[in-house]
Amino acid sequence: MAASRKFKNLLYSSAFYLDQLNDDWAKFYDVPLTRDKDGILKGGEACMWGESVDDSVFMPRVWPRAAAVAERLWCADERICPFKHAWAVNRLA
């Protein structure tokens, strides 16, 4: 994370664009999150842009992929929270 050398706190969203409609929950679940030695990565966000969604399709386009992002960001340390698809498939598929 080259940006971590310049900034004190980072919010990560570039891998979590929900308007990429070909990406399923597993893609977001597998995003590697790395923190530098100072723990600069403070969190992230899932983003959904209006040109690919309106109120008639919002829920099926956002969920469960946003839930996978939330779970991934909640516990970014895989030594503590191992991310296993077999554990998540019943919740997110």
Automatic annotation (TrEMBL):
GO terms for cellular component: membrane. The keyword Hydrolase applies. One of its GO terms (molecular function) is beta-N-acetylhexosaminidase activity. Residues 23-75 form the Glycoside hydrolase family 20 catalytic domain. Pfam families: Glyco_hydro_20. Its EC number is 3.2.1.52. Coiled coil: none annotated. It catalyses: Hydrolysis of terminal non-reducing N-acetyl-D-hexosamine residues in N-acetyl-beta-D-hexosaminides. InterPro entries: Beta_hexosaminidase_sua/sub, GH, Glyco_hydro_20_cat. SUPFAM superfamilies: (Trans)glycosidases. The keyword Hydrolase applies. GO terms for biological process: carbohydrate metabolic process; glycosaminoglycan metabolic process. Keywords: Hydrolase. Belongs to the glycosyl hydrolase 20 family. PANTHER family: BETA-HEXOSAMINIDASE (PTHR22600), BETA-HEXOSAMINIDASE A (PTHR22600:SF21). This is beta-N-acetylhexosaminidase.
